[in-house]
Amino acid sequence: MTTTDFIQIIGTAAFAVSGYLVGYSKRLDVLGVVITALLTAVGGGMMRDALVGHVPQVFRHTDALIVVFATLVIAWLLHVQRYRRTQLAAAFLIADAIGLAAFSITGAQIGISLQLNLFGVIVLAFVTAVGGGIARDILVNDVPIILRADLYGSVAIFIGGLMYFLAQLGWINAFTLHLLFAAGLVLRLAAYRFHWQLPGFQPRRK
Q: In this predicted model, what pLDDT tens digit does every residue of 118-138 receive, in sequence order?
């Protein structure tokens, strides 16, 4: 198993957990929870593959589906939904941050393998990381987290940009990939902890 495969599995499982928690918080039925988990875990990858004219990987390989359903079974057996509200919030934050960092890397790597320019690599990193979450949030009638969370999409842009420059230098290896993953994870959690946000716009008072 390569480093990329490992990161892909970690990201898929983490996003499946976050989708599971969203489905539970919205009091969806079993099918609804499965759909939110699947959308979160594979939706971004499907959007990315569509952008580059590929048949989505989830339609050709069952690895991601196995990871998603295995994760859902484990979450159900552990009765994750019965945890305290603060524990559920923490679990969602950590799972979502792991998925964000992991999928930013895998998306950027696809762009690099296709020899895209800086913009293309960043777009694929961004779409892979946040596409599934956007689809999930729209499905459950929430404002997508990327539009309201502290430095969420910015983490994907940061990782995608760094991946591009590391690839130009020939420095993409297991060590740098793990370092990027850790940096993205820490940045997302730190942004949440210290309330780092991009500048916003406030309506002018009359």
A: 999 999 999 999 999 999 999
Joined together, the tokens standing for residue 160 give 């995608």
Q: What is the pTM of this model?
A: 0.91
- Radius of gyration of the chain from Cα atoms? 17
Contact 102, 8 (CB under 8 A): yes
- Number of Cβ within 10 Å of residue 7's Cβ equals 22
The whole-number pLDDT of residue 201 equals: 63
Mark out the alpha helices in 78-201 (DSSP H runs).
85-113, 118-139, 153-169, 174-194
Predicted local distance difference test score (pLDDT) of residue 205: 63
Q: How many CB atoms lie within 10 A of CB 170?
A: 7
Q: How far is CA 36 from CA 41, 122, 135, 177, in A?
A: 9, 25, 9, 28
Amino acid at the residue 187: L
Q: Find tokens 């916003």 and name the residue.
A: 200
Cβ-Cβ contacts under 8 Å for 92 (sequence gap 6 or more): 17, 18, 21, 22
What is the residue whose two structure tokens read 């994760």?
71
The pLDDT of residue 100: 95
- Could you tell me which of 162, 165, 194, 198 has the C-alpha nearest to residue 181? 162
Which of the 8 DSSP states describes residue 173?
Answer: S
Q: Given this model, what pLDDT does residue 149 score? A: 64
Q: 87: pLDDT confidence band, cut at 50, 70 and 90?
A: confident
